[in-house]
Specification:
Low-confidence stretches: none
CATH class of the largest domain: Alpha Beta
Number of domains: 2
CATH architecture of the largest domain: Alpha-Beta Barrel
Number of helices: 12
Bound molecules: ligand LLP
Shape: elongated
CATH superfamily of the largest domain: Alanine racemase
Distance between the termini: 39 Å
Helix content: 25-40%
Mean pLDDT: 96
Structural class: alpha/beta
Length: 406
């Protein structure tokens, strides 16, 4: 995304043209960026060619998952809905891993019937439930056990998953007991040790620590895991203050680890594949003057993009058309929802905005649309994909007919 003749453009389409044709708010994805991210991700770890399972939760758009499939990626799913979506997109079941702390018997049954690669179990009782179902079907099921490595991912608390107080995974002691249990089981084939310590990780050191813990646990378990699933979590840069993850160091640590073990590495990236491919185009409904600050009331709100309200996350906002005049007020970008947290950011010295001007919220491809809702009975936005100089609608804008079953 860049300015051409002062107009912000996505691949070669100006935001203005897109908004005129498709309205606002609109999620717009760039295929070029998407392709680049997949290429870079593969390239960063090419020496051990991992199985890359895209975390469907980060973006559940069928057309995008179909594109992901074309690049040979698998999927990481956490619910029956996500598993059905991955299969609908044509992803090979032998490239699908099922994570999550609360898989229901119904979901386990479904996963077993689809012959997916791994069910990554997160508790003793889940393993027993899988065993019971496998036994009733007279099948042997490949599972992973998610270890809680008690490693601080040095990311936001709300998206940290690898510390002992988090609900995810199983502590070392229990993990070792369960490995023994699985060795004796007739219906469970333990194939994988999995971890996922958190999301939006920009420091490679927590990953290094995590690998050290895995190393120690495998030694104690005296067990040969065919797969080591390292989860996702690779962070992206949302603004100028963010540093970027040192993939070289992470790759180096994994290569060292693999000198001792011949396991196949699995990754479950979401944000690093799709995050910076998406933008949210929005229109200013009103400029509301309020002393030192002006509220810029957008037609996009926390129901369209909840990350700022939920995690205090920052998304860069840029005007669709560059003008010279700056405002001397603080601009507080908000949505129309009846919640004070329905706020995107406060910015000083933004260019002067008036009603009907367009702005773009950046890097919303991950956990943007997938976390959207109908709160305040607002319609969900349209999603479009810019690919090979064409725009394709990949999800229609919701209508009141859809929403109210008219
Ligand atoms: N694997 C597991 C087991 C996960 O729980 C997650 C994300 C991922 C993979 C993918 O992580 P990624 O590579 O995208 O960081 N809504 C939050 C992020 C929640 C992440 C939940 N789990 C946000 O908007 O920042």
């Amino acid at each position: 995304m860049r300015y051409i003749n002062k107009k912000l453009t996505i691949e070669k389409f100006s935001v203005e043209t897109i908004a005129r044709k498709y309205g606002t708010p609109t999620y717009c994805y760039s295929f070029k960026q998407f392709k680049k991210n997949i290429f870079n991700f593969k390239n960063n770890f090419k020496s051990f060619s991992p199985l890359i399972c895209f975390a469907i939760k980060s973006n559940t758009n069928l057309a995008l998952i179909k594109e992901i499939k074309k690049f040979g990626l698998g999927a990481d799913v956490v619910s029956m809905g996500e598993l059905m979506m991955a299969l609908k997109a044509g992803i090979n079941p032998k490239k699908i891993v099922f994570s999550g702390v609360g898989k229901t018997p119904n979901e386990i049954n479904y996963a077993i019937s689809k012959n997916i690669l791994l069910i990554n179990a997160e508790s003793e009782n889940e393993i027993k439930e899988i065993e019971k179902i496998a036994n009733s079907k007279n099948k042997i099921i490949q599972i992973g056990i998610r270890l809680n490595p008690n490693t601080d991912a040095k990311t936001l608390n709300q998206i940290s998953t690898g510390k002992k107080e988090n609900k995810f995974g199983i502590n070392e002691k229990k993990f070792l007991e369960l490995v023994k249990y699985c060795k004796k089981s007739k219906n469970i084939d333990l194939k994988c040790l999995s971890v996922h310590i958190g999301s939006q990780i920009l420091d490679h050191k927590p990953y290094e620590k995590m690998l050290m813990v895995i190393d120690k646990v495998i030694k104690k378990a005296k067990y040969k895991f065919k797969f080591i699933d390292l989860g996702g979590g690779m962070g992206i840069s949302y603004g100028k203050d963010d540093k970027s993850l040192n993939y070289k160091r992470y790759n180096f640590a994994i290569k060292n680890f693999l000198k001792k073990y011949s396991s196949k590495i699995i990754f479950e990236p979401g944000r690093s594949i799709i995050g910076n491919t998406g933008s949210l185009i929005s229109k200013v409904i009103y400029v509301k003057k309020n002393g030192k600050k002006d509220f810029i009331i957008l037609d996009a709100a926390m129901n369209d993009l909840i990350r700022p309200a939920l995690y205090g996350a920052m998304h860069k906002i840029l005007p669709a058309e560059k003008k010279n005049k700056r405002s001397n007020k603080i601009y507080e970008f908000v949505g129309p929802i009846c919640e004070s947290t329905d706020k995107f950011s406060s910015i000083k010295n933004f260019q002067e905005l008036k009603e009907n001007d367009l702005v773009v919220l950046h890097d919303v491809g991950a956990y943007g649309m997938s976390l959207s809702s109908n709160y305040n009975l607002r319609l969900k936005p349209i999603e479009i994909l810019v690919k090979n100089s064409k725009i394709k609608v990949i999800r229609k804008r919701q209508t009141y007919r859809d929403l109210l079953n008219l």
